[in-house]
Write the structure tokens for this entry.
Amino acid sequence: MIDTGWLWLVIIALGAGSFLLRFVFLGLIGDRPLPPWILRHLRYTAVAVLPGLVAPMVVFPPATGGVPDPARLIAAGVTLAVGLWLKNAIGAILSGAATLYILLYLLG
Amino acid sequence: MTTETTKSIFFKGVRDAAPFLLVVGPFAVLFGVVATQAGLDAIEALGFSVAVIAGAAQLTALQLMLDQAPTLIVLASALAVNLRMAMYSASLTPYLGQAPLWKRALVSYFLVDQSYGCSILAYELHPHWTLRQRLAYFWGTVAPICPFWFILTVVGAKLGGSIPDWLALDFAVPITFLAIIAPMLRTRAHVAAALVSVGMALLLAWLPYNLGLLVAGMCGMITGAEIERRLVIKGAWQP
């Protein structure tokens, strides 16, 4: 379980940090231009961090004690494929969830 | 377009951002549910959503706290997920940089994927808008998104305990993230950044405190930036 004092410390620090990231250029830097190499790296943060966060959850799911699970692997694949194909997050989530439930039902 | 009033521009923002509620809404409910299952009450879940307003970072922090990672690792990983907000901030500065400081601070607080995405597109399409009209549009995009982010977090937290096991909710988080990632993979540089990140994260999954994620994220960023740089030099870059 998460300790309450610790939780609020993280909430407040994360809130402050997130605000500073949003405010840093708009509020503090103003109209001065940024070095292109910084912008180039910032462009790839989301696409570099989120897949690394998801990959272990997909391959070593905690629900099966970290053992790779065919239903979850296939559901993840379908979600990604539909997302790439339709460029639509809702469609991807619904197809992934449907795949997962059907496979969990079939594979017991 | 001489008929545009500040009010009509506000409602244009509302209309443009409203469809994103279909993605944001379920994500907020999911965060509330996951937070309750991690032992948070509704007030704590809402506190998270109000302080941070960024689902991916909130879920990252929660996941790492459940793994009992040290505070610095929790903050560094969740803030790394939010680094893109700094890019949003930089890219809106030419359009909103003239506003008074308190307004820029308020815009910063509400700067989320959807308000940014709609606004930057509208500002590029309507270069004649005054600062007042640009701000009106921005508030229009915030209105159908952010209040629901708060409300639906609480709804999820109230539902939390009553979700049955067979719903396999453990997998809702990865599925939601995958659905968010897929449309981001627009260029070869983005795909390479994601692949490097996945490979490194799996190879380094044994490291304590999810340190593997920080290393994987940094390697992915450097990969994406480097490929973009080389494609630009070759003249083959198509953003």
